[in-house]
Amino acid sequence: MQGGAVSTQTRGVLGVVGSAAGGLESLRTGLVEPALALGWQVAVTLTPTAGRWLRENGEFQRLETVTGLSVRDEPRLPTEARPHPPADCYILAPASANTVAKLALGISDNQALTQIGEALGTLGVPVVVFPRVNAAHARHPAWNGHLSALREAKVRLVYGADVWPLYEPREAAPGRDLPWAEVLAAIADDTAS
Ligand SMILES: Cc1cc2nc3c(=O)[nH]c(=O)nc-3n(C[C@H](O)[C@H](O)[C@H](O)COP(=O)(O)O)c2cc1C
């Protein structure tokens, strides 16, 4: 798909990166469409696993339709044009424990991590991350170190009992809503001039 269908933007380009964690299926309705309504141009990139999930349920195509841009879930070839405009800021949500860990360590083994990892080191590009994890993920011995590394990189974490109480695996209510309003408020704060 060619980019450019969304042409009357005022706020800039928001890179939305999604990984394979519960609630991913609400990425369009919970985050992308509200961000478009706020005036962002939205460019969506998914981890390969997240891409598989959203292709299977039709959301991949719907995200391309509403954003007017390709959804990326694999790297381009050097001979291919860049499918997205450069992002002014990024939201990584939902962020699986796996993707948080790799981001904190600087591992960029897919297109989603390549983009968000580079954004962490790019001056003036705010990054908001919502770790969609459970209590077991948070007790992993490396977890607090990963969060510290991201905070040191000036990432705004949407995290804590007030926005995302941690439950033991398989003990949270099914279909629990993700804190999309808090995620959008965080990027609005970080990009306010
Ligand atoms: C149905 C299902 C739900 C999952 N939900 C979560 C989740 O909420 N949080 C999480 O960290 N991992 C979750 N996982 C595990 C991740 O999908 C898995 O670690 C995967 O390798 C993450 O890949 P990615 O980070 O590249 O997207 C879930 C897996 C399945 C099959």
Task: Give the tags.
alpha/beta; Rossmann fold; five-stranded parallel sheet; 5 strands; 38% helix; globular; disordered N terminus; binds flavin mononucleotide
Protein described:
By secondary structure, the chain is an alpha/beta fold. The protein has one domain: 3-Layer(aba) Sandwich (Rossmann fold). It contains eight helices and five strands, in the order E-H-E-H-H-E-H-H-E-H-H-E-H. Strands 2-1-3-4-5 form a five-stranded parallel sheet, sandwiched between helices. Helix 1 links the parallel strand 1 and strand 2. Helix 1 packs parallel to helix 8. Bound molecules: flavin mononucleotide (FMN). The site of flavin mononucleotide has 14 residues, from helix 2 and helix 4.
What would you say about this model in short?
By secondary structure, the protein is of the alpha/beta class.
What bound compounds does this protein have? flavin mononucleotide
Supply the helix-strand structural class.
alpha/beta
Question: What would CATH call the class?
Answer: Alpha Beta
Number of H/I helices: 8
CATH architecture name: 3-Layer(aba) Sandwich
Helices, strands, pairings?
Blueprint: E1 13-18, H1 27-37, E2 41-46, H2 48-56, H3 59-67, E3 89-95, H4 97-105, H5 111-120, E4 127-131, H6 135-138, H7 143-152, E5 156-157, H8 180-191
Parallel strand pairs: 1-2, 1-3, 3-4, 4-5
Helix pairs in contact: 1-3, 1-8, 4-7
This protein binds flavin mononucleotide (FMN).
The site of flavin mononucleotide has 14 residues, from α2 and α4.
